[in-house]
Here is the input.
Amino acid sequence: MSDWQLQDAKNRFSEVVKRAGDDGPQTVTVHGRRAAVVLSALEYDQLIKPRMAFNEFLLSTPGWPDDVIDTINDRSKDTGRDIDF
Here is the structure.
């Protein structure tokens, strides 16, 4: 990521945009402080793309084979030992 002073970024805007596409995000500073970041359109699209909700992700995974489900269901129902307090 490159840092550009605002005046330089304004004067060489086409270069800032080209570098954003080739080298990644470009930071623009004002008085030495970050003020803006120029991104390529592809990186921006990745940032705003809707994300799948966690529950949708879990439900979208392939189901387990029947033998795995049978093994899980056939496990011991023993809850352990009784403890006197």
